[in-house]
Design brief:
The structure holds 2 protein chains of 2 kinds. By secondary structure, chain A is α+β, with helices and mostly antiparallel strands. Chain A is built from 2 helices and 5 strands, in the order E-E-E-H-E-E-H. Chain A has one domain (15-91). The radius of gyration of chain A is 14 Å and the shape is globular. Chain B folds into 4 domains: 6-109, Alpha-Beta Complex (Sulfite Reductase Hemoprotein, domain 2), CATH 3.90.480.20; 142-291, Sulfite Reductase Hemoprotein, domain 1 (2-Layer Sandwich); 306-397, Sulfite Reductase Hemoprotein, domain 2 (Alpha-Beta Complex); 412-548, Sulfite Reductase Hemoprotein, domain 1 (2-Layer Sandwich), CATH 3.30.413. The longest helix of chain B is centred in the first third of the chain and has 23 residues, at 6-28. Chain B is globular and about 60 Å long. Chain B starts with 5 loop residues before the first helix and ends with a helix. The chains are: A alpha+beta, B alpha+beta.
Amino acid sequence: MTSPLQQKIKITGPSMVTANRTWDGVVIYRTASNGWTTDLAEAAIVRNADDARALLAESVADDVGAIGAYIAPVEIKDGGKIRPGNLREHIRSKGLTIDLSVPA
Amino acid sequence: MYAYDELDRTLLNERVSEFRDQVKRRLSGELTEDEFKMLRLQNGVYLQLHAYMFRVAIPYGTLSSRQLRRLAHVARRYDRGYGHFTTRQNIQYNWIKLAELPDALADLAEVGIHAMQTSGNNMRNVTSDQWAGVAPGEIEDPRIWSEILRQHTTLHPEFSFLPRKFKIAITASEHDRAAIKIHDIGLKLIKSAEGESGFEVLVGGGLGRTPFIAKTIKPFVHGRDILSYVEAILRVYNQYGRRDNIYKARIKILVHELGIEKFAREVEEEWQQMRDSALTLDAAVVEEIRSRFSYPAYEKLPHMPDELKKAAHDPLFERWRRNSVFPHKVQGYAIVTVSLKPVGGPPGDATADQMDALADLADRYSFGEIRVGHEQNLALPHVAKRNLPVLWKALDKIGLATPNVNLVSDIIACPGLDYCSLANARSIPIAQELTRRFANHDTANLIGRLHINISGCINACGHHHVGHIGILGVEKNGEEFYQITIGGRADENAQMGTLIGPAVPYAEVADVIEDIVEAYLALRDSQDELFVDTVKRLGVEPFKERVYATR
């Protein structure tokens, strides 16, 4: 399988890097200060392929802290609020879209 | 129930210790994710959208009450208080922490449960009929053979690095409840003219992006030869199966490309070299395995006890009994299917409290035994008919008496995009909406047997190809769309459904399914003609017309 760093990176709008935290699997986002956050609002936003590649490279380098890092789209709303850019990321960010028999 | 011996217990404990060390090394950075991935997969640990997913095997779908309580404990202690029963007699936990997984595995190992063979390119959990050992007319209990195959294949080096995953299912009844024709190897237990046990062996079935119905490769293989014959198949697969392309690596592709005749010749040639080897099963070995299965001490009971006659006056009880209670091989007893498909609920989910309560009910009314079926329901396999009314009330109290088994709301669904990293679209909300649309039990009964299967992607974990109505989620320009097939079936007459037309958007799926069902009710030639038979008689056109005429 091709390494994420070798894959052709094409982004069409604002994007972030997301992954899962290694020890518990929780969804995390790469921050601008070389760290991770569980809050999408604190994610580093990139707008071109070079920046995206660089952010992904430093994310993948943290093999102990994170697993499965990849670039995903976001939407920047009025006032600069960051929203997930697709349904998959919406579900990862906000949780299940379904009712469960037990409270989450 | 099967009683594990010291060897089994040692193996499980060693496996837990090994994985504990691997997790420790992963978390310390000594192992990279690339190095660790295969090790975690060999212990049933995937990475999904929100967290790790932990898949635990329930070999041939048999659980003791003690084991079910332990599954509940894992749900409560390490997860979010529920588990999801899958189409291959496994249970999945969706929120587990890697750091706690070794403890969860250790807790499970104490009751003989593990996660081996639930993931990775190896021989997966051997599945069987959830009514094994109790179904009337069964040739013999297929779990004996499932267990022999399980023991032989567990950690077998030759089967641990196959081109792709490999699934075996076994049935011993004319009516196939194990879906053997959609497995890599399907085994149908039969008797020879001389009365000896053996198998019709089918090979090359499977769903996913290239679905095939399994073909018979040998009409009879004696029971004593089943290990060598299965191994011969695996050797041919190991030798010729493609490892260069994940999408072409399953044995079904090899069988299709070689043709069943040539594939059969290759297997036969391999088998002739090994059939009289250490793999030949000694009758004493088979008997030893058989002796480790314990069966209840059934009482001599009347066919129709007074309690049942009295309860028959209660229409709510009768509604449940008609759809959930099935004949047992022993007079006075019944098999009870426990629906995990409540109206508005995720198919196949059970809470820890429900699991605990069901374990108690199994102790009281089913000799402490529970079964798991590929339809994502549970079963109590040994219920005295006199206890059915009281069992029904107890099940109802814990939300497990939905009277919809085999009806339109008894939906099989994969976790879909709500959980799965492979999914393109959601499955569970579609299922939930459909159960609400068909919540009226009188309507559902009028419709009769109708299986809806939903998959959130082409990998087909929801077996959509073989649903009477199949729903496949796809993604189009960032939106969820669903392809609808009709006429599939997963039983002894297994066949793939036929696509009725262009995919429909998320918001229209339930309407489309209602249209299809309404068309069926108008088109069937009698109330006894099942949906799938109407489709067979008329083809898809009338349904297509109904669905797309106004869309």
